[in-house]
Design goal:
Strand content: 15-25%
Strand order of the largest sheet: 1-2-3-4
Order of helices and strands: HHEEEE
Oligomer: single chain
Largest sheet: 4 strands, antiparallel
Structural class: alpha+beta
Low-confidence stretches: none
Shape: rod-shaped
Helix content: 25-40%
Number of helices: 2
Number of strands: 4
Length: about 140
């Protein structure tokens, strides 16, 4: 048998409050930096820009070749239309194939030459040679 001294109103002592179990103090989350205006997009935009630049550099020879071909075709067709058929240069542009909207025509009436050009990429000329029709000038 164990001897314990009872506490309570019969002994005249006031009972002591039992200690409360410790509850963890809620911690506030660490303050993060406010996200920038771009959020996490900026690295992805840089990667995308680098990839697009690489693609453009890789495909540039193909773009240039297509521009050369289109400007030569436009010069030859425009020259034939203008000097063989006798139509105006504006009406000759309606003879172009779909997709040739970037090609523009200009003429030099003194030398009977029509030049087809794609801005910043290519320019070719065709000259009216009488009975032979229109001939492309060699590249410079």
């Amino acid at each position: 048998m164990t001897s314990t001294n009872p506490t309570g109103p019969s002994t005249g002592e006031t009972p002591t409050a039992a200690p409360l179990p410790e509850t963890p103090v809620p911690t506030l989350p660490r303050s993060r930096q406010t996200p920038s205006r771009w959020g996490g997009c900026l690295p992805w935009l840089v990667v995308l820009a680098v990839l697009l630049t690489g693609f453009a550099i890789w495909k540039f020879p193909s773009f240039k070749a297509q521009a050369e071909l289109g400007s030569a075709y436009a010069a030859r067709v425009g020259c034939s239309c203008r000097y063989v058929q006798g139509r105006s240069l504006e009406s000759c542009q309606s003879d172009f194939e779909p997709g040739m909207e970037m090609v523009s025509l200009s003429e030099d009436p003194a030398t009977k030459t029509v030049t087809g050009s794609v801005p910043l990429l290519a320019s070719r000329s065709a000259r009216y040679a009488g009975a032979s029709g229109c001939l492309l000038r060699p590249e410079d």
